[in-house]
Specification:
Blueprint: H1 2-13, H2 15-18, H3 51-56, H4 64-75, E1 96-100, E2 103-107, H5 117-120, E3 126-127, E4 130-131, H6 138-141, H7 151-163, E5 171-175, E6 185-187, E7 211-213, H8 224-236, E8 240-243, E9 249-255, E10 264-267, E11 297-300, E12 306-313, H9 323-327, E13 331-338, E14 343-350, E15 366-369, E16 380-381, E17 385-388, E18 394-399, E19 405-410, E20 415-416, E21 419-420, E22 425-432, E23 437-445, E24 455-458
Parallel strand pairs: 2-5, 5-8, 8-10, 17-24
Antiparallel strand pairs: 1-2, 3-4, 6-7, 9-10, 9-12, 11-12, 13-14, 14-15, 16-21, 17-20, 18-19, 18-22, 22-23
Helix pairs in contact: 7-8
Length: about 450
């Protein structure tokens, strides 16, 4: 009864939007009555524990019937799951692709398969996602191979999705619960985010001093190996990542091997925020753009992940009524995908703002191109592909020795010169998947310069 009351409130609140536009809704931790969820493949939390201790053991506190009810009410409108096999306890899955007008969206579950850090690191004394042992070095000890984030089934789905540009797909995005970095700070003395609701809200223009970078295991900055695998698959599809959960409006760019080598991510602000997270790093980011705030630039988060921050909407004092609601930086996101230019505009707006006449949060909008979502610089080039007989064909690039797909996308027009990231031989496939029309070219040698004889691809 309590769940349905809350769900009906959501439906009523969003009725005007959801009856007019296609809608994707996915549940998160509070929907299944957790503070945090480490789903651990769907198992039940340890039966001899209660409260936070049970939650930290991994799995679900509530019955599988309850979890399935929550998922069904919130996700049954989505396409069928890519791999419908339930996880433990018979809990269903919903990860899938949703194609709207050629925008292909990978809908992911980044809690359900995630390992519980408390079981992995007993010496860290983790409580509610926060290590309480001050002598335990999180950057040194928390990066391990055996911890799961998305799980093998979702990684398999993403690999296939990255290469599949059928149904006239021309752009890709991934939607999941939370950010794959930990863009948050806390006062130096804090041992968890339990202090957040009591923190002072600064005046506009004030840079808060005395904060530290933090490592919250509820963020998807951990597990780092699983995080990197997911991001590497996002960038193979040139996909923008769209998330919520963190409450703190943010646009940043992931780095795996180096800063800015991967895709952009936008974190939507909360529409109602009782937990005002913040980002006041104790030092300026590296490679700052002239005139940018010191909280932007290249950083390592508390887990050692590379992240480049472009815009943040920290809570700040305001005179807009009701003050408490708006000073916590509540709002909404608008992401616009431009088919003609393949640009993407990322914008976070204050809750009170009318986009027809008001301005977004400072630092937005941020406009990028589709190809910016694979930010790694070219280390070699393949010949320019010149296509006759097809408009906007799909191109797939494979590393020939390993057979691994480097990336795929739908060309804009009939000319495209592929960048690659290592010397060697490559296979290029060009065609139209909706007609199963392909041409394949093997033994293409990558060159250090773009000045290469073009490859002419003619379709009758």
């Amino acid at each position: 009864m309590d769940y349905l009351y809350k769900w009906y409130l959501w439906c009523i609140s969003n009725k005007e939007l959801t009856t007019k536009v296609p809608t994707i809704a996915i549940p998160d931790d509070h929907d299944v009555y957790h503070g945090n969820v480490w789903g651990a493949g769907g198992k039940a939390t340890d039966s001899d524990l209660t409260g936070v201790e049970a939650q930290d053991s991994g799995g679900y506190n509530m019955s599988p019937e309850f979890v399935n009810m929550v998922q069904t009410t919130q996700t049954s409108h989505l396409p069928d799951p890519y791999d419908p096999q339930p996880v433990e306890q018979g809990i269903g899955v919903y990860f899938t692709e949703c194609n709207i007008g050629g925008l292909s969206i990978a809908v992911l579950e980044d809690r359900k398969f995630k390992s519980a850090p408390g079981n992995m690191f007993p010496e860290a004394k983790i409580v509610n996602g926060w290590a309480q042992n001050p002598s335990w070095d999180v950057k040194r000890y928390s990066r391990i191979e055996r911890a799961s984030l998305l799980g093998e089934r979702q990684l398999k789905f993403l690999e296939k999705w990255a290469g599949d540009w059928s149904h006239k797909t021309w752009m890709k995005a991934a939607v999941s619960q939370t950010l794959f970095s930990n863009v948050a700070t806390l006062p130096e003395s804090a041992t968890s985010d339990g202090v957040v609701p009591e923190l002072d809200i600064p005046d506009a223009g004030t840079y808060v001093q005395g904060d530290k970078m933090v490592a919250d295991f509820d963020s998807n900055g951990w597990p780092q190996v699983g995080r990197d695998k997911a991001i590497q698959l996002f960038r193979k599809a040139f996909a923008t990542h769209i998330v919520g959960d963190q409450h703190l409006a943010n646009t940043s760019q992931y780095g795996v091997e180096d800063w800015r080598d991967s895709c952009y991510v936008i974190v939507s602000p909360a529409t109602g925020n009782l937990f005002p997270r913040r980002w006041w790093p104790p030092f300026p980011g590296k490679n700052l753009k002239p005139g940018s705030p010191n909280y932007t630039g290249d950083f390592e988060d508390g887990f050692g992940n590379k992240v480049t921050v472009y815009a943040i909407a920290n809570p700040q004092k305001t005179t807009i009524h009701p003050e408490r609601h708006h000073e916590l930086a509540t709002g909404y996101s608008l992401i616009t995908f431009f088919k003609d230019s393949r640009d993407i505009e990322l914008t976070n707006w204050p809750y009170w703002a009318d986009p027809a006449k008001d301005k977004p949060f400072p630092g937005w909008p941020i406009r990028i191109n589709q190809q910016d979502n694979y930010g790694e610089n070219a280390r070699a080039w393949l010949p320019e592909i010149r296509v006759t007989g097809l408009i906007d064909p799909v191109i797939q690039i494979f590393q020939q020795q390993t057979g691994e797909m480097v990336y795929a996308l739908r060309m804009e027009g009939q000319f495209f010169q592929p960048k690659v990231f290592a010397p060697g031989l490559y296979t290029v496939r060009v065609g139209e998947p909706d007609e199963n029309t392909w041409q394949e070219f093997r033994d293409i040698q990558a060159k250090p310069s773009k000045d290469i004889k073009p490859l002419e691809v003619i379709f009758p």
